[in-house]
Design goal:
Elements: H1 19-38, E1 44-52, E2 58-64, E3 71-76, E4 80-88, E5 93-100, E6 103-111, H2 112-117, E7 121-123, H3 126-134
Parallel strand pairs: 1-7
Antiparallel strand pairs: 1-4, 2-3, 2-5, 5-6
Length: 145
């Protein structure tokens, strides 16, 4: 009796990529691209300069007249003009919200035409700093002398 060695290796399922998986992967990529193209990205404003003469770094957020959701503008540094880039355009009416170290410091309603007329510069109102002082918030930096 002679034994013949079987030199064929068993077929491994792991080593083969099934055509169904390739088709599913291609369909998934097409689906992601289609969704990305169908969902419009919001318009932006190239730059807004926030003028903050207070002693507090102030967080600035914005929304539209309908209060459809707040988006971050940035942090306006104490005693500085801070340029914020690529800000979501909120349309004809912008409402800015100011906070400092977790404390609410108020809101400001500004029209788009006023922002444009001011060279896209927003001045943090003095009442924002007063509210933060009243709340006992320490200054972000020592006032300039």
């Amino acid at each position: 009796m002679s034994l013949v060695a079987d030199t064929e290796q068993p077929t491994s399922r792991r080593g083969r990529i099934r055509p169904l998986w390739i088709v599913l992967a291609i369909l998934a990529v097409i689906g992601f691209v289609a969704v990305a193209l169908l969902i419009p990205s919001p318009g932006t404003v190239d730059r807004i300069t926030v003028r903050n003469s207070s002693e507090f770094d102030v967080n600035v957020d914005a929304t539209n007249a309908s209060h459809d959701g707040w988006t971050p503008v940035g942090i306006a540094l104490a005693h500085a003009d801070t340029d914020m880039r690529e800000i979501i355009d909120h349309g004809d009416v912008w409402i800015f919200r100011f906070t400092g170290q977790g404390h609410d410091a108020g809101e400001l309603r500004v029209t788009r035409s006023d922002l444009a007329a001011d060279g896209w510069t927003l001045t943090v109102p003095a009442v924002v700093a007063q509210r933060l002082r009243d709340a006992g918030v320490p200054a972000s930096i020592s006032p300039r002398r």
